[in-house]
Predict the structure.
Amino acid sequence: MEKKLPETLAALLKLEAVAGRPVRLMFQDEARFGRMVRPRRCWAPAPLRPVVSNGYEREFVYAYGAVSPIEGELDWRLSREMNTVRMGEFLVGVSQAHSTEFIVMVVDGASSHKAKDLVIPDNIRLLRLPPYAPELNPQEHVWDELREKEFPNRVFSHLDMVIGQLERGMSRLSNDRDGLRSLTAWPWIVSLNLNAH
């Protein structure tokens, strides 16, 4: 991906397609958050041992996210389901939020990303990651950061509490542009040529 991306971008960034708009490179992914506890190491003063409750409820909400590493911005949306319709709604929201820009959105091979009935807005082009390569998607690091800071060792008695925690965490990340850049603006991403030709 790192090696082939410059050529692939060059093919997408044609003058007639970009039409004078600024180009925004985004990396998209979905993640599932729920009431199942994710035990993590934690500190307690000696001689105490930390006690973490456990929960096995299989109740989830899905987060759609797309990070713009160069700008340090995060677009996101929560949904009770993950499918082609919800992906289309997410794309429409991103398109409207950046209506004056030409967006190249890097996505994985999820079925909802390549479904024939997925409606892709005019100012967005999807660029697929190679199979089994989540390490190339900086949005994965956003999910890791969110899980590490907002969800370790927490038991939620209702899914609405998960949603509230997720909304607070996503807002915190969205408001920290420098933190997002530090987390996601990898050297090979920053070095890409995003000029139309």
The chain is about 35% helix and 20% strand.
